[in-house]
Amino acid sequence: MSIDNIIAKAVADAVRELYGVETDPATITPQTTKKEFEGNLTVMVFPWVKTARKAPEAVGKEIGQWLVDNEPAVAAFNVIKGFLNITIEPSFWASVLSHIASEKNYGITEAGENSPLVMVEYSSPNTNKPLHLGHVRNILLGNSLCRILAACGNKVVRTNIVNDRGIHICKSMLAWKKWGEGATPDSTGKKGDHLIGDFYVLFDKHFKEEVKALEAKGMSKEEAEAASPLMQEARAMLRAWEAGDKDVRDLWATMNSWVYAGFDETYRRMGVGFDKIYYESDTYLEGKAKVLEGLENGLMYRKEDGSVWADLTAEGLDHKLLLRSDGTSVYMTQDIGTAKLRYQDYPIDKMVYVVGNEQNYHFQVLSLLLDRLGFKWGKDLVHFSYGMVELPEGKMKSREGTVVDADDLIDEMVSTARSVSEELGKLDGCTPEEVKQITETVGLGALKYFLLKVDPRKNMTFNPKESIDFNGNTGPFIQYTYARIRSVLRKAQESGMTANDFIGAKPGEREITLVQRLADFPSVVQEAGRTYSPALIANYSYDLVKEYNQFYHDCSILKEDDERTRSMRLAISKVTADTILTAMGLLGINVPERM
């Protein structure tokens, strides 16, 4: 039993005996005492003030004294207003450490046969351009969220929806036909997603030239864009695709296959993957059928022009278009179709969509429509809404080719990691293979950590130079501390020192602070899962590493003469390293054994 649970149960016993009140220990949540006050754990006593008919300070003192008299883990207490600050018996922390060290997967709750099935959708790329920095934040958030939800005891299915149809795809296809001269990834030496992205940019370049020429003839910008021969050709290609034209479909399949190969290479390098991938080209007709079924059942209505709508005014929203007058679908219809296929494939209990905050309204509507159409998880779907990511230079624009390409960004991060590591002497004595592995690990770790440590709901600016710093709240700082601890443990093993025989050791202030921080880990994981926040794991990792470095500075480990104290400090070091490994793993970040 954890120290939090021990104290919660003891407080419940105290309240029952003192005031005759039955309290579920699960509702009592001890918090780490603030640093400016004396104590280890704090419990609010306000819930029992009314029943006791006494001032909060008096209630706190009565409960505190009962704990001192009856609970061996409690050494002392003090009361600040309605807050009972509890000091744990120092020797008790050794048993807490022993409990943590004995846990096989400390902090992780394994899924059981009846655990909820949570599906998480992330990435959602378009097949007309490579993955960019915005996608990177989405992918890393989704990947980490899957790991955290699994660590909280859920069954998790990782899924992706690929936007592989529409006018944007036709723009790249048309540009390739006109100016590609048969270029392929093999003939150009380019990744397929980069090659197709170049043609998307090329289309926009020629389109803007056409619009400018038409505006010079007296047209408005809107008229010129509508009259553009290039845009008209792209729309004709889209109609041909929807009609099943063989030549258009064959070109579409070929170019998409190039893009998928490029995406897969980037995903592998980022260390992410999916259990199931859906494609809009398969789902949009399913969505159309589901909407028409809803129309027949009176859940939707048709206007005079033939378009199909949903009336959401009773829910405080407006009327939502689901099928255009020509029968073609909109994004909402496609999402309904994707939901239908997913529900057929998996017994989903909860659906989580990792999509930027500009789509908040879309998912509010989707939730209502899915519920109306009979999907049991529709009403409770989670839109994991995250903020945009920018560079210090400002926003990115795909059509103008000013996005930060994911592959280029990763290469830059690895290169910077190498130069910074070499400058600090952290690669001294490493073989070329070790240098390659360490710099890849540090570079990607810096990128992932910097993007995940920020509250996902907030917009953020990504600064590559700030992210690779071996001091401060960064991935490399945490990775280096882990490598340092592993080095200490290797030296201990070589000297025949053990971390097993510390019962009876008397931990000091530094040891107690660190063990208490370690004891917090399971509740941090659960809170991160409850609030869908990888940032909680990231910042916990940083706080843990800071505490360990202070402990490492103040407490001798290998040179400690007292065998029990040395064993205790080695045990603390091992558990800290294991917890860092687990926590960073929940963020999808690797940590190097040597550095």
Explain this structure to me?
By secondary structure, the protein is α/β, with parallel strands linked by helices. Helix content is 55%, strand content 11%. It has 22 helices and 14 strands. Strands 7-6-5-11-12 form a 5-stranded parallel sheet, sandwiched between helices. Strand 5, helix 5 (133-151) and strand 6 form a beta-alpha-beta unit. Helix 4 (92-102) packs across helix 19 and helix 18 packs antiparallel against helix 22 (563-586). The relative contact order is 0.10.
Any chance you could write out the topology, listing elements then pairs?
Blueprint: H1 3-19, E1 31-32, E2 41-44, H2 49-52, H3 56-70, E3 74-80, E4 83-88, H4 92-102, E5 117-121, H5 133-151, E6 155-162, H6 167-179, H7 185-188, H8 192-216, H9 221-227, H10 229-242, H11 246-270, E7 276-279, H12 280-296, E8 301-302, E9 308-311, E10 319-323, H13 331-345, E11 350-356, H14 360-372, E12 382-386, E13 389-390, H15 406-423, H16 432-452, E14 460-461, H17 464-467, H18 475-494, H19 509-519, H20 521-531, H21 534-554, H22 563-586
Parallel strand pairs: 5-6, 5-11, 6-7, 11-12, 13-14
Antiparallel strand pairs: 1-2, 2-4, 3-4, 8-9, 9-10
Detail the poorly predicted runs: 395-401
Placed side by side, the strands forming the largest sheet appear as 7-6-5-11-12
Note the gap between the termini.
36 Å
| Rg calc | 29 Å
How many strand units? 14
The share of residues in helices is 55-70%
Shape: globular
Q: Which strand-content bin applies to the residues?
A: 5-15%
Give the count of helical stretches: 22
Structure classification? alpha/beta
> pLDDT average, as an integer?
93
Major β-sheet profile: 5 strands, parallel
